[in-house]
């Protein structure tokens, strides 16, 4: 192929945004020749490589936008250590039908039992399935809403958190919430109600959310919407971190028992 023809092909591939084919054309064609593919098979092979490339880029972009604080996968979750968690139920949730339906998912239990791990892992599966996802802690979320309310930008912040198909709110109840948090959280839940899914992790039972928000009436209204179409998983058991320290002999069993009583 002459240079002008090479440049012309490169220009057409660029215009069609066939990045993978353009960047790896010689390698791909060599591989097709090695396999002795027909012209039709070669075209299909080139298209497969392009689709795979675009899919990988889409997933990477989605994971970047989601802002997960760490890498966690379902394969890395130790189901044997948490018998209260049904692997079949988690695999079903990983399919994302609850997200398509706009349902809520609550992961409840004491600290260290894997709630955040599952939240991030399910969020990653949602990204792979094509859903937009955003991860935030409850403290960071409320802080932003309170500041936006004070600055007159609440509507813009509510739109920001209402936009993703799945919003993950981690660690609700771990730290005291700012004054006015209940009403602002209620506005967000109402904005997303039956339109976008919420995944919330909390160390407090839903019966204690009145204390978490400091307003039993608003907490009831929040739960009324969250629980209308919801999946609730309560995880019981020892903390992974404490169990590891116990195995290493760093903490005595009675110390763990006392700590468990405190955090629960």
Automatic annotation (TrEMBL):
Top-level taxon: Bacteria
Pfam families given in the database record: IstB_IS21
Domain AAA+ ATPase, residue spans: 101-234
Keywords: ATP-binding, Nucleotide-binding
NCBIfam families reported for this sequence: IS21_help_AAA
Family (UniProt): Belongs to the IS21/IS1162 putative ATP-binding protein family.
Name of protein: IS21-like element helper ATPase IstB
Gene of this entry: istB
């Amino acid at each position: 192929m002459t240079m002008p023809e090479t440049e012309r092909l490169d220009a057409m591939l660029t215009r069609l945004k066939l990045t993978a084919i353009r960047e790896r054309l010689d390698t791909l064609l060599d591989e097709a020749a090695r396999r002795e593919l027909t012209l039709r098979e070669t075209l299909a092979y080139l298209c497969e490589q392009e689709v795979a490339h675009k899919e990988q880029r889409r997933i990477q972009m989605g994971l970047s936008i989601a802002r997960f604080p760490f890498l966690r996968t379902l394969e890395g979750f130790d189901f044997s250590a948490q018998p209260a968690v049904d692997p079949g139920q988690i695999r079903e949730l990983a399919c994302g039908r609850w997200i398509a339906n706009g349902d809520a998912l609550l992961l409840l239990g004491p600290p260290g039992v894997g709630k955040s791990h599952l939240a991030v892992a399910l969020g990653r599966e949602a990204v792979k399935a094509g859903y937009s996802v955003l991860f935030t802690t409850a403290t960071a979320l409320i802080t932003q809403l309170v500041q936006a309310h004070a600055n007159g930008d609440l509507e813009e912040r509510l739109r920001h958190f209402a936009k993703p198909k799945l919003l993950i709110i981690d660690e609700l109840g771990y730290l005291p919430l700012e004054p006015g948090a209940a009403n602002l959280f209620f506005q967000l839940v109402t904005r997303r109600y039956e339109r976008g899914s919420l995944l919330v992790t909390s160390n407090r039972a839903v019966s204690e959310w009145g204390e978490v928000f400091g307003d039993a009436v608003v907490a009831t209204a929040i739960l009324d919407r969250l629980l209308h179409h919801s999946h609730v998983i309560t995880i019981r058991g020892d903390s992974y971190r404490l169990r590891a320290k116990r195995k290493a002999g760093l903490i005595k069993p009675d110390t763990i028992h006392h700590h468990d009583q405190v955090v629960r």
